[in-house]
Amino acid sequence: MLIIERLSLMNIKHLKKLQKQSKNIYNKDFFKDYNTQSFIIQYLKRKEVKLFKYNNEYIGYIWIDSPIDSTNKILALYINDLYINIVKEEIIKIFKNKLLVFDVIDNELNYDIMKKLGFKELKVTSLMKIKISNQHKSYLGNKSNFKIFTKKEDEKLRCFIQNSVFHENDRIPLVPYDIKLEEQEDYYIDNLCVFIMERNNAVGYGQVILRNDLYTIVNVGILEKYRGNGYGEMLIRYLLYLCYNENISVVAINVDSNNYNAIALYKKVGFSEYGKITTWSK
Q: How close are the terminal C-alpha atoms of the chain, in Å?
């Protein structure tokens, strides 16, 4: 009989064993996050994890980011291959009427597991990485062309930029409240959110977050009328310069595998392809 347990101080040692068995290298490390938190936050974090137990043996776990809507972002998932069909049915029951989304390294093992669990492939993106070195210790452009995002002031401006840039990507338009929620997330980094400016007008935006223990550039976009003028490259290079100042050694970026122009730009800056990431949903 399958039993689903909420993570507790009594069974947390079993999560440590299961996490070591996980072969999905894109899983977020629960304990790296958990061990640095206060007692109250640790209690809340434990509520996000469920352990799967079958015939008194712990066979897997799922860690879900606290949802703010009907979407549940999976931060880590592992199930012993022998019990996938059993767990599959329980996952359907637990998250009925909820959308599950999970990013995993694209390989045969993970593809087989996600298919067996009943997930559907949403998209495939290229994971690119760059090692931060002394060449990033200075920025050769005009630093006055950039503005660090300021909390309680720039939420509307960021919404305008991102909604304008990504309006054709079937994204739900951002509102300032969405940004304020993000500012409270563990992955958010205050001083690595940047607008690129022209004559005191913001023409683009980008930021670096800590996702799955990897510093990652996200939400990079330039307003349409300003594209083709090198602003995208300037913004990426400036973000890397800021990362150098923060002693960050490796930075990643995800890009649609069919976005050849963006891939060419990132390679020009110094990124190289590391692997493919598949986004699955259920």
A: 24
Exposure of 280 by Cβ count < 10 A (0-12 exposed, 13-18 middle, 19+ buried)? buried
For domain 129-281, say whether CATH 3.40.630.30 is its number. yes
- Interatomic CA distance for residues 59 and 30, integer angstroms: 17
- Do residues 145 and 195 lie in contact, with contact meaning Cβ atoms separated by under 8 Å? no
Are the beta carbons of 162 and 281 closer than 8 angstroms? no
Give residue 52's identity as a one-letter amino acid code.
F
pLDDT tens over the chain, length 282 residues = 889 999 999 999 999 999 988 877 678 889 988 998 899 989 999 999 999 999 999 999 999 886 655 678 888 999 988 888 888 877 777 777 778 888 888 888 788 888 888 889 988 899 999 999 988 998 888 888 999 999 999 999 999 999 999 887 667 789 999 999 899 888 999 999 999 999 889 999 999 999 878 999 999 999 999 999 999 999 999 999 999 999 999 999 999 888 899 999 999 999 999 888 898 888
Q: What topology does CATH give the domain 2-118?
A: Aminopeptidase (3.40.630)
Give the start-to-end residue ranges of the domains of the chain: 2-118, 129-281
- Does the reported pTM lie above 0.90? no
List of residues 6+ apart from 48 with CB closer than 8 A: 7, 63, 64, 65, 66, 75
